[in-house]
Amino acid sequence: MDIPKHVAIVMDGNGRWAKRRGRPRIFGHVRGSARVRSVVKEASRLGIQALTLYAFSTENWNRPESERKVLWKLLRKYLLRDIDELHRQNVKLRVIGQVDRLDHDVREVLTMATERLAHNTGLQLNFALSYGSRSELTDAARRFAVDCLAGRATPDSLNENVLDSYLWTGELGELSKVDLFIRTSGEQRVSNFLLWQAAYAEFVFLEVCWPEFEPKHLEAAVNEFSLRERRFGGLGKVTHV
Ligand code: IPE
Ligand code: IPE
Ligand code: MG
């Protein structure tokens, strides 16, 4: 089976899942955060090399402070609770997004977790936090311009690989390219996630909401991926014209 190297997931639908059960949105976030552990484990088992989870977008800052607080608290709780397990599974962690916008206590736990897992060699787990592709690309352009002014780069030296290296996913190299892009909750939009990196991703939209996402859903999406013919603008398996 053709296993995607890099899978990106928009973990969507927590609020609707809770509302349908007559519970507050926050209950959906609590249940949603509890889904991450088994999905990370399944990604490793399937032989996926990188898993990027969209946990908080730049646009999510527009949500009420009470909801944002819960989301950050759940992230800290997840990391503190699962760090040993992630280490046992040889998982490596990185954060992509506007890290400096996060509260000190959140950054502290993130630093602890990334340092603890830094030398692992298994699944590359990326948390997209205060992430937005438009802000990522703007930031890359700004830093490239600064390097040009400082004489460290010239406009002619810019090509796709160089631009790649200025993105928050830069250190992933070739692995930054998303093969499989999954979104739960039935919504069919990108919502500012990995626009550049997912240029040739295969998209799988699932009706299940994130709090009901199980390892079998990831496996099904990977199966679906393996049935797709990726042509990259060429003619694929066509044998005659
Ligand atoms: C995803 O669920 C979690 C975040 C965006 C942080 P939502 O909170 O977007 O849930 P819905 O889409 O409103 O149901
Ligand atoms: C995308 O979901 C962001 C995350 C899942 C973290 P949203 O619920 O914020 O996106 P929209 O508002 O439906 O586009
Ligand atoms: Mg949503």
Quick summary:
With 241 residues, this protein is α/β, with parallel strands linked by helices. The protein is 42% helix and 14% strand.
Counted by DSSP, the helix tally is: 8
Number of strands: 6
Question: Which fold does the CATH topology refer to?
Answer: Undecaprenyl pyrophosphate synthetase
CATH superfamily: Decaprenyl diphosphate synthase-like
Helix-and-strand structural type:
alpha/beta
- Average residue-wise pLDDT: 97
Number of domains: 1
- CATH architecture annotation name: 3-Layer(aba) Sandwich
Radius of gyration: 19 Å
Show unreliable segments.
Answer: none
Q: Distance N terminus to C terminus?
A: 28 Å
What does this structure look like?
With 241 residues, this protein is α/β, with parallel strands linked by helices. It has a single domain (6-129, 173-226), classed as Undecaprenyl pyrophosphate synthetase. 42% of the residues lie in helices and 14% in strands. The protein has helices at 14-20, 25-33, 36-46, 65-88, 104-117, 133-149, 160-166, 215-227, and strands spanning 6-10, 50-57, 92-96, 124-131, 180-183, 202-205. It has a six-stranded parallel beta sheet, with helices on both faces. α5 (104-117) links the parallel β3 (92-96) and β4 (124-131). It is globular and about 55 Å long. The two termini are 28 Å apart. Residues 11-16, 56, 60, 71, 185, 210 line the site of one 3-methylbut-3-enyl trihydrogen diphosphate.
